[in-house]
Amino acid sequence: MRLIELHLKAFGPFTERTLTFGDKAGVVHVVYGRNEAGKTSTLRALGDLLFGFPHLSPAAFLHDERALRVGAAIESDSGTTLRFLRRKGRVKTLLDPEEGVLDDGALKPFLGALERPFFERIFGLDHEQLREGGEALLKDGGDAGLGLFEAGAGLAGLRKVLEEIDGDAGKLFRPRGQNQLINEALKRLAEVRKELKLRALSGDEWRTVRDELTGVRVQLENVSKRVQELWAERERLHRIQRNLLPLSERSALLAERTSLALVPDLPDDAPAQRQEAESSLGEARRRLTGAEQEIVRLSGQRDAITPREAVLRQVDAIERLARQRGDIESKIADLPKREAELRQVRTEITRLLAQAGFKAKDAEVREILPRRPEVAAIREMIREQQRLGAEHEQARKTVEGYEVELRTAEGALGRSVEPRDTAPLAAAVGEALKLGDPGKGLRAAQAEAAAASEALAQALRKLAFWTSGDVELEALPVPPDAIIDRFASAFRDAHEQKIRARGALDDARRELERAEAELTRFDAAGEIPTVEAVRSARRRRDRGFRLLRRGFIDGREDIAAEAAAFAPGLPLADAYEDSVAATDEMADTLRAEAARVERHRSLVAEVARRRDLVAAQEGELRAVEASATRTEDEWRALWPSLGFAPQPPDEMLKWLAQRTRILERRATSRARQDALRELEEAHSSARRSIGRALVLVGEEGAGGDEDLAALLARAQRLVEQSAAERSERKSLIQTIDSLRSKRDAARQSYAYKEAQLEGWRERWGLFANRFGRGLTVMPAEMEAILDLCDETTRKLDDADTLEHRIRRIGEDRIAFERAVGACITAAAPEITGLDAVAAADRLAKVLASARGDEERRAGLEAEIAHHERIVDECRAAIARHTAKLEELCRSACCSTLDDLRAIERTWQQRRDVERRLGSVERHLLAGGGGRSLHDLAAEAAGADGDTLPGLIQEREEEAKQLDAEKTELARKEGELRTRFDAMSGGDQAALAAQSAQAEITKIHEGAEQWIRLTLASALLQRGIERYRERNQGPILGRASALFERLTLSSFARLVVEFGKDDEPVLLGVRADGKSVGVEGMSDGTRDQLFFALRLAVVEQYVSRNERLPFVADDILIHFDDPRSEAALRILGDLAERTQVLYFTHHEHMVETARRALGSERLVVHTL
């Protein structure tokens, strides 16, 4: 997918801003913006465009959230294009350019199942992520698996994640730990179980305490009930005592209210209404009298003023004359000054004409002066003469300079010699240089081959249980990973089943022990007769009776032996009586203790059930162990050729991983041996080729003791010397050709300038004759004449202006005098005889006086109208208030105001009675405990206020005595309860059992969490190792080439070696063959290593999937300029495969990109 256009319609600081990227491949798009120009907003807009706005968008600070819009035009790899907008919302956020709704799956052909986190991790990279990736490589110790996985997944700090998982698991359980959660819970569980076994006591003592406790509790309950009754009676008597006086007052108020029942009902504010109406009526009558008197007074003043209509009709003309008066007066005073200025200007014109050499009358002056076009043409010719003279002189000097340089170059060429042809030698040198440094490269290859062989031998020695060689190890048949994983899962399942079966068996045994202990404690509390025991006693009693009957009633048999066996040492009759008594007592006890008998039966049944459960759990454990044994036999059968007993699957997975790394070492060793042989053969071939080429150019060939490095250095010096000579001779020939061309062009230019100067002289003569001068007049002299002509023209313009102004003053004066005369005739004939200016001033004063009279008359008219309105208002108010008073009298059923006032007083008296009655009743209800007024009155009926205090005191004294008895009973009950709880285990036994169950729950939960964490760590490590095995070859190979370019060949390649714990470690190899771990690299180099790994992952992804833009945000700020240019060139190569956008706010980075990429591979967008 390629971004053709990004439209920031309404987003962050942007409004209708568009960035056009186009569809050209192979270019890097650099988006540059200063701080606060919107670079970060543009980056955020790209993610919001493709994957939607977050719930809280930081882009909504200029535009409302509902108005946010960002759009684009995109193109897929198949050529399909889409133009769309994205709005902020939950659903239907994709829109077409006209804001019609698009299907939510419209982007699926372009993005597939890609989600925002993956896109930002893999295809987005900023300098912070780059630095975190480099630091993660350092913290991981160069672990190859972690490094590849972190670069491929866009994650950093996986080592820390693994350590945190293992740390969390270690906090839960360690085999020999003490302070871990599961270890502590196991310890506390053992202590609680020990405590539970200590709870048991004698049955007789327990029953005695129980019966005594029950009796005390019954007494305590009776006393508490009697105390409550006494306090309730005391409260009732107190209430009656409080209510006697208010109830008496209520009766009196009810009687008074009845006596006032015939008073008419009036509104609450009736007196206020009456008083307001009376007051307002009197005020309205007073205002009416005053207003009528004021109307008479003002009418007299108005009639005394006489209007001046003639003056007011001329108001516009008089005001216009007043405005003109000051201007006319100023112009009349200015006229003599302007006439003197005109005379002075005319004298100056005569003087200027004389200086310029012109003679003419006043009317002919403008005719003899040159026109403006002529003046401009002459001035242009003067400038042209200056320019042509300078160019003519410069052309002459240029011709002379080229001739000197040409003679010098021809002499140098004559002294040079023809160089030898070293092309075959240069070709041989080029082929040899492809091998790198001859000495260092060969030594590095030899060292690498030896190191690889030694590493392989060490790895074989470290491989547990293996005694054969690497060839046998490679040929060893091993099961596939899927089968091993299946057996690992089966082993784990068998182990978990064993744990569960053993745990279930332990739980069953603990429950059996608990049931047996409870049955033992129950039996110790007293013997409980069973139904079977009663039946046995009855059978013995019946047998005794039969013996008595046979021996003493029937008298037919000798029963002495049977009687002795029935009751040794006792007479048969006594023994029989004892059996009857024992049987009756047992039957009575069975009936009396029916509940305990049932509990005993239940406990016996539970013990039997628990024993059956233990037997079942033991059988299940044996079955699980048998199944595990079969799985182990099948596992051993998978390894017939192993040579040693196979370890559990998890251990064998580690063994196989170690075997894989050894086989990789074996392949590496063979590859480096092959590379060494190829390099040695290449060195020999290069030495022979250079020796033959040296002989061809006349030099001595390869000596017997001259190695490739010395031979190559001698050949390079010959090639460079020949190339320098050839370059110098070629440069001289090119210089001579160039100088001849330049000299000929300079000669032509000189002739052309000569012709131009001659043409100017001819035209100059024509202009000189126009002014009566000959060809000898100089440009400077002509320039002075033109300046005098310009000054004369300006003076003529000044004279014309002054003449026009003097003429206009006279015309304005005449018009003003006529207008003044017309106004005087029409409005004020009495002021005839004054001059025009004075008359205009007098007319203004007359107008002001007439206006004052008119304004006073209008003011009086307004006041009269105002008072007439007051008269109307007062008459209406008098009628309104009179009607109000009549209405109040009707409502009180009276006809005069005096009667109304008397009724109001009686009505106020009834309202006061009702208010007092309401207060008394509210007081009674507030203290009545929820009872009604009727119930309170009935409760107090017949009560004697004098005897109530004595009754109240009697109830209080009795209640206090019983309170003391209650306190003593409560104390005794507490002591007995404590003894009873201690003897029976009580709450402590229950709490101990509850604590035991809590610890068991905690152990189960902790074990489940420990298993999850342990499995998570193993699965993550296995995933990282598998990712390394699948991607180490392609990704590491490409990253190695990129790393060499990023470090400017400071590192030649990347390799994977095996560390002290036999884990794969990523190393950088310098040009001299020295290996460097990530801990030995600088911060910047580690950043470049992570950058190389990330780019390799991106290239692999876009080669297999829909291509996506790679977005980099100022990732090069920690790179120096040379490495920045190298990184930009690599991004340029990446742009051939997928689109590359580089955001920056550093202007120098734009210049660096121009140097690295050139104009053909770079497009700069400025925010």
Question: What are its keywords?
Answer:
single chain, 1167 residues, alpha/beta, five-stranded antiparallel sheet, five-stranded parallel sheet, 32 helices, flat
How would you describe the overall organization of this protein?
It is a single chain. This protein has 1167 residues and is of the alpha/beta class. Among the domains are: 181-198 and 986-1007; 203-262 and 923-984; 315-370 and 777-831; 373-422 and 717-768; 424-478 and 658-696, no CATH class; 481-637, Helix Hairpins (Orthogonal Bundle), CATH 1.10.287. 72% of the residues lie in helices and 6% in strands. The chain has 32 helices and 13 strands. It has a 5-stranded antiparallel beta sheet, covered by helices on one side. Strands 7-11-12-3-13 form a 5-stranded parallel beta sheet. Strands 8-9-10 form a 3-stranded antiparallel beta sheet. A hairpin with a 5-residue loop joins strand 8 (1051-1058) and strand 9 (1064-1070). Helix 28 (948-984) crosses helix 29.
Give the helices and strands, then pairings.
Layout: E1 2-11, E2 14-20, E3 28-32, H1 39-51, E4 69-75, E5 81-87, E6 94-95, H2 108-111, H3 116-122, E7 124-126, H4 127-139, H5 144-153, H6 158-172, H7 181-196, H8 203-259, H9 270-303, H10 309-313, H11 315-356, H12 365-368, H13 372-415, H14 423-433, H15 438-462, H16 470-475, H17 481-524, H18 531-554, H19 560-566, H20 572-592, H21 594-637, H22 649-696, H23 708-770, H24 779-827, H25 836-891, H26 897-926, H27 933-940, H28 948-984, H29 986-1046, E8 1051-1058, E9 1064-1070, E10 1075-1077, H30 1083-1104, E11 1110-1113, H31 1121-1134, E12 1140-1144, H32 1147-1157, E13 1162-1166
Parallel strand pairs: 3-12, 3-13, 7-11, 11-12
Antiparallel strand pairs: 1-2, 1-4, 4-5, 5-6, 8-9, 9-10
Helix pairs in contact: 4-30, 5-29, 5-30, 6-29, 7-29, 8-26, 8-27, 8-28, 9-25, 11-24, 11-25, 13-23, 13-24, 14-22, 14-23, 15-22, 17-21, 17-22, 18-20, 22-23, 24-25, 28-29, 29-30, 31-32
